[in-house]
Amino acid sequence: MDNLDYGIIGNCRSAALISKTGSLDWCCLPEFDSPSVFAKLLDEKKGGSFEIKTGPEYKINQEYHRNTAILVTRYSDGDNIFEIHDFMPRHHKPNGKYNAPPEVVRYIKYVSGEPRFSVYYDPRLEYGMGLTTHHVKANYVVSLTHKQKFDTLFLYTSFNKNTVMDGGEIMLKEDGFFLVCYNEKILKPSVDRMALELERTKVYWLDWVAKGPTYKQFNDEIVRSGITLKLLTYDKTGAVLAAATTSLPETIGEVRNWDYRFCWIRDASMVIKVVSELGHKNSAKRYLQFIIDLMPDKDEKLQIMYGINKEKTLTERTLDHLEGYQGSKPVRVGNAAYKQRQNDIYGILMDVIYEQLMKFSNDIENVEELWSITKGIVWIVAKHWKEPDKGIWEFRGEDRHFTFSKVLCWVALDRAIKVAKMFGKHRKIEKWSVLEQEIKRDIHQNAWNKDINAFVQSYGSKHLDASVLLMEPYGFIHAKDPKYVSTVRAIEENLSNDGLLYRYKNEDDFGLPSSSFTICTFWFINSLFKIGEEEKALKLFERLLGYSNHLGLFSEDIDFKTKRLLGNFPQAYSHLALIECAINFSKKMSEERILESIG
């Protein structure tokens, strides 16, 4: 498969990726960051998959059931037609909690004729490190491994289990199912029971989407991206994952391969801001609680990232037995970046706290704790803002004074002052305002390069960086300020490549990047929109939407030449920026329509 032509299904406990031909090629159970049970995505031979095979006469189409996370793959040779409805169950329980078991349902829907298919079922537990054996029992097929550690997986089905495991032909005359479970079922599953799970899960997603606003333009794209962000949230703790995968490379054959199944404070905070804009305040409240639970002692620095169950140590190791996505080694699990210092996270976090207090101030139980966190953040920023760090892009080389980090230190003070105003803390306002102005002056003096007429990547540098485009959305500078306008122009001239953006062009620890970072292109489109070049921005936006996969999903990167998707998938960062762009365009178009009708 040349592109990331996958759909994601999930239930806010784990997720799975299904190819456009209906092959289950990636799934970790029981949770997002557990070892994989299917990982063909990372090794065609050793990873393991669950494939539905039909003859070449069958045409295959795939789409989501509208406004849900249920993926429908349709197989048709004209007369003989069937569908697979893939999903991970999620629905309300009577006690107000959610039923979200660690399992995948593949509901086989008979449509017409006498469709025939066979199954290739080959899970490889524990990242395929040891031998996985399969045993057909009376009620299920159990797969187990015990070389690395003991682990099991269960398959229940309405079809003949021996035929399934032998890859024999199945002729479909009525609906059937496959149920892949991490745990043995107490009650034996049936077709009727699986049909009920399908309907309940459908209702859950339809209700979830209905809670959000409807937009005049790009509503379908906003909804699909919103569902994708929801699929990357972990219900148990409120954590938000950067992506559902590990080690999908930024460039084929290179070593920029990272594990993204963790919660980056920056990414997650940006996601939560967008999700609450879409009306889902429970996700925002759970994430705030996740942060409150993680907040260290008042003198201890916040990490840039944590495990989804609040783990603080994310030791990085390589799985050398796996070939990697299209031969791109190494495959990594864990992420050494958790040790890095990135000073921008305090501003990002403070921005989210301020937004939530503004929107839901009467509905937030932890106001005192949030005020304590606010004071703690200001104290840490005051102590450390003059120090260099690794920056937003996690350079693994020497620390620098990155402009984006400094701007976000200013954001921390700006939002803290606004929170202090809400609580009538006048002495804090006076004290913090002095520091806020000092940071602002420092940025204008040191981040502005008059020779290239732009804000640059780091103090004293001549390199441009797409992250400085965020100076305007965070309120550091006005969109029409000549300094911002000329920065946007300089970035367009230097970092844009056929409408797609480099993060930066200076060589980093791994040489010059050869793929575009998707979120940067969305940032650039937004900045063009803000400085008044709306028509140009809209054209670029519509073109960029065309680079998504067949289901409207984006990964982290896009190859400049081929436009194929690269990097971990689906990427929360990319989808949150898509939503921000789409909402801006939709609001603008709605305003224009109102003005036209008045006129």
Q: What about the largest sheet?
A: 8 strands, antiparallel
Q: What overall form do the CA principal axes indicate?
A: globular
* Strand arrangement in the largest pleated sheet: 6-7-8-11-17-15-14-13
CATH class category of the domain at 6-201 = Mainly Beta
Count of DSSP H/I helices: 13
Protein name: Glycoside hydrolase family 15 protein
Keywords: Hydrolase
Pfam family, one: TREH_N
GO molecular function, one term: hydrolase activity, hydrolyzing O-glycosyl compounds
Sequence-ordered SSE layout with sheet pairings:
Elements: E1 6-10, E2 15-19, E3 24-28, E4 36-38, E5 49-53, E6 59-64, E7 71-76, E8 81-87, E9 91-92, E10 98-99, E11 103-112, E12 116-122, E13 133-136, E14 141-145, E15 151-157, H1 161-166, E16 170-171, E17 176-181, H2 191-210, H3 219-231, E18 233-234, E19 239-240, E20 263-264, H4 265-277, H5 281-294, E21 305-306, E22 317-318, E23 332-333, H6 345-360, H7 367-384, H8 403-422, H9 426-446, E24 448-449, E25 454-455, H10 482-495, E26 496-497, E27 500-501, E28 515-517, H11 518-530, H12 534-545, E29 557-559, E30 565-566, H13 572-598
Antiparallel strand pairs: 1-2, 2-3, 3-4, 5-12, 6-7, 7-8, 8-11, 9-10, 11-17, 12-16, 13-14, 14-15, 15-17, 18-19, 20-21, 22-23, 24-25, 26-27, 28-29, 29-30
Helix pairs in contact: 3-13, 4-5, 4-6, 4-13, 5-6, 6-7, 6-8, 7-8, 8-9, 11-12, 11-13
